[in-house]
């Protein structure tokens, strides 16, 4: 019985980074990493023919803003795409965690919509966007951080910066402790 009282503790960031290094797959501009959920780069986000071909209905830009990947709802108006922009810096000191729950809600809504397919992207699709996708898998699909890393890593090379990994670890701790308190 005492084992249930222990606080959940995910792997430390250096171990998470080693886990990411061990999952090397061929990564193109875009990869489906979960059913109807795609992780990609700026090239994909700007290629309307690829977006049409994939059937993308929702786009989350994790590098939104004037001096980043400046697409936005106007850019996609001819495609009838729902858009959500996060003005994130790929900087270990940037607090991406404030976007985890709203982004997860946007992705969930997109996936649940009729014929919904979601693209989450940033400049390269390996740090900011990957962190948002990992948070979604943890919040909405109940995966642990390690399981989310393995799941996405099977389909795309990702490498969230160490600050984002630490923010994801903290999310993992909160979510797992919440699950344990219900049991």
Kindly describe this structure.
The chain is globular. Strands 1-2-5-3-4 form a 5-stranded mixed β-sheet. α1 (13-22) crosses α7. It has one domain: Protein tyrosine phosphatase superfamily (Protein-Tyrosine Phosphatase, Chain A, Alpha-Beta Complex). Helix content is 43%, strand content 11%. The mean pLDDT is 91. The chain has helices at residues 13-22, 42-46, 48-54, 100-112, 128-141, 145-153, 162-182, and strands at residues 30-34, 37-40, 58-61, 82-85, 118-121. By secondary structure, it is of the alpha/beta class. The relative contact order is 0.21.
Question: Topology, pairings included?
Answer:
Layout: H1 13-22, E1 30-34, E2 37-40, H2 42-46, H3 48-54, E3 58-61, E4 82-85, H4 100-112, E5 118-121, H5 128-141, H6 145-153, H7 162-182
Parallel strand pairs: 2-5, 3-4, 3-5
Antiparallel strand pairs: 1-2
